[in-house]
Design goal:
Elements: E1 5-8, E2 11-14, H1 22-45, H2 48-57, H3 74-82, H4 84-97, H5 103-130, E3 135-136, H6 139-145, E4 152-161, E5 165-168, E6 174-183, E7 188-194, E8 207-211, E9 214-216, E10 219-222, E11 227-230, H7 238-250, H8 253-257, H9 259-263, E12 265-266, E13 269-272, H10 299-322, H11 325-334, H12 351-359, H13 361-374, H14 380-407, E14 412-413, H15 416-422, E15 429-438, E16 442-445, E17 451-460, E18 465-471, E19 484-488, E20 490-493, E21 496-499, E22 504-508, H16 515-526, H17 530-540
Parallel strand pairs: 3-4, 7-10, 13-15, 14-15, 18-21
Antiparallel strand pairs: 1-2, 4-6, 4-8, 5-6, 6-7, 8-11, 9-10, 12-20, 13-19, 15-17, 15-19, 16-17, 17-18, 19-22, 20-21
Helix pairs in contact: 1-3, 1-5, 2-10, 3-4, 4-5, 10-12, 10-14, 12-13, 13-14
């Protein structure tokens, strides 16, 4: 028999079965109508600043729908993207965050919250008795829409499962994850599973339903809040199998988890064996962005990180609103990691997301502190909102340094082979290698028509060789061909590394490079002519360099 339930604006109602459903539909419509009316009144109680903060935290709603809309239009948009019931809970959460816990707001909001809590147990009981399955969405539809509602799930076959990987975040906590490639009849997708609790339960070649996942660009994340349940077997078409294999072959499942770590400044120890003319690669930060550089968001740390990030973005909006137009322009000018094209045509409400995307949450706090001191804006209106976050980071940093000092551990070196395999280098790690090749000084033109300089190296150790791009001219005389150096806090970007003003370069004793590695280094040098490197760099290389 066809299911007698459907989703009506987030509320489950009967449909198509011939049962006596009009009463439920009428009740749902009445609830929705009353809620939208109350929501208009709630929004009218908010100041402009509070209203903007609310929109910032309603992240399911596309940005294009948050501007140019009246407050009277927003209840329809909010319920459209959250569903009626979930929109009540979302507004409750945002009002607590702003905060607006006064009677003018809560007297209009709390009756709906209480009603939903009361209905919760009854609804879950009815759902269990009815045997109604969760609404499923194909992987193709998920990738097309970029979203998955709480009432929706995806069902697919695990065609690949990685080993358990570990990473160390900035708080020196070891965190675990593993990766999957999941496919259904329409397509395949990468899946990151945080923690180790599900590792034994999720089997390769078995099929599962995933509900309450986090959709992030072209992959999904499974956290402690996700429901994973085994389902019947699915036959995967040959075309989809080939697509899944491409995901496995082209990008190891672990690489997506490491994307943020690949973009953070890292330390590389090695000998510069030569400067490769390879093609510079545009930073993925501009494509996907990272909100917490170098931090792996696991079930253990997700709540803490998200809470800090959410509070910081809300405070940052308030800080930006305190700035005059002149001060705001000075701030943008000094945030040089952000591409110029993203600094114009964006509202102040949009900038916190962009700032944290390019600086990371923690580094953005320090960057804003530095800029506010520079402008200067040292008054209470700005500092009272900013200083608590600075103090919190300083406290964590002192604890981290104390732990590191007590451990008595020197900088940990990583081989070039291990770096190329993992694609990441932590702040506590360095690469030591021999410069087997050094190019002449090159110039390039940035998008703002200013000229920058760089030179290239090929660095090798006993395990392998790698291309190195050194920005600026300051180190050109100091770094010598055939000498050995330790590189710390470099930026790892695809198959080469970048040396910026934040990088520490120190001379080391000589290293003997095996003949096999020397041949590999020579291949990098010979791969493209130096002139090709100059041309490519001028056209495509990242230009916002510290």
């Amino acid at each position: 028999m066809e299911s007698c339930f459907r989703e009506y604006s987030g509320i489950t109602t009967h449909n198509t079965c011939g049962c006596d459903a009009p009463g439920k539909v009428k009740m749902s419509l009445k609830f929705e109508q009353k809620w939208k009316t109350s929501l208009i009144s709630i929004l009218e109680e908010l100041s402009n600043s509070e209203y903007k903060k609310m929109l910032l935290n309603l992240d399911k709603i596309p940005k294009r729908l948050k501007s140019g809309r009246s407050r009277e239009e927003m209840p329809q948009i909010i319920t459209q993207y959250y569903g009626v019931e979930q929109s009540v809970l979302a507004i409750k959460k945002v009002m607590d965050l702003i905060p607006r816990k006064d009677a003018a707001v809560q007297d209009r909001l709390q009756p709906f919250v209480d009603k939903l809590k009361k209905k919760g147990q009854t609804k879950n009981k009815d759902k269990k008795e009815s045997g109604k399955p969760d609404k499923t969405k194909t992987i193709s539809a998920l990738k097309s829409s970029g979203q998955l509602l709480d009432s929706e799930a995806i069902v697919g076959k695990v065609v690949h499962k990685s080993d358990v990987h570990t990473d160390v975040n900035k708080d020196n906590e070891t965190e675990s994850f593993f990766n999957l490639v999941v496919a259904d009849k329409t397509g395949s997708i990468k899946v990151m599973v945080y923690g180790t609790e599900r590792f034994k339960d999720i089997k390769e070649k078995s099929c599962y339903m995933f509900k309450k996942v986090i959709v992030d660009e072209n992959f999904i994340k499974v956290t402690s809040l996700t429901t994973v349940s085994k389902t019947t077997a699915i036959k995967i078409p040959a075309k989809v199998q080939r697509e899944a294999q491409m995901i496995i072959d082209q990008e190891p499942a672990s690489s997506k988890a490491q994307t943020s770590a690949q973009k953070m400044p890292v330390t590389v120890q090695g000998t510069v064996t030569g400067i490769g003319p390879g093609k510079p690669v545009k930073s993925k930060l501009e494509k996907i962005g990272t909100q917490s550089k170098g931090i792996k968001v696991t079930p253990k740390t997700t709540k803490m990180l998200l809470k800090f990030e959410q509070k910081w973005k809300t405070s940052l909006i308030s800080i930006l609103e305190e700035l005059s137009n002149s001060e705001y322009k000075k701030m943008l000018l000094n945030l040089d990691k952000i591409p110029k094209r993203l600094k114009s045509g964006r509202s102040r409400e949009e900038m916190p997301q962009i700032i944290t995307q390019y600086y990371g949450v923690k580094q953005s706090v320090l960057a804003i502190k530095k800029v506010m001191d520079l402008i200067p804006r040292k008054d209470a209106a700005v500092q009272d909102r900013l200083q608590p976050f600075v103090d919190q980071l300083k406290k964590k940093h002192q604890t981290k340094n104390k732990d590191k000092k007590e451990s008595g551990k020197p900088d940990e070196t990583k081989t070039i082979s291990a770096l190329k395999s993992s694609g990441q280098l932590l702040d506590t790690e360095a690469i030591v290698g021999k410069v087997v090749h050094k190019s002449d000084l090159r110039t390039y033109v940035r998008k703002d028509n200013t000229t920058g300089s760089f030179f290239n190296l090929v660095v090798a150790d006993k395990t392998g060789s790698i291309k190195v791009m050194v920005y600026g001219t300051e180190r050109f005389k100091d770094i010598k061909e055939k000498s050995c150096y330790m590189f710390k806090k470099v930026i790892v970007d695809e198959n080469f590394i970048k040396v910026t003003s934040l990088t520490t370069v120190s001379k080391r004793r000589a290293i003997k490079i095996p003949a096999k590695v020397q041949r590999e280094a020579q291949m990098i040098i010979d791969l493209k002519a130096a002139s090709s490197m100059v041309q490519t760099s001028a056209q495509k290389m990242p230009v916002n360099v510290q």
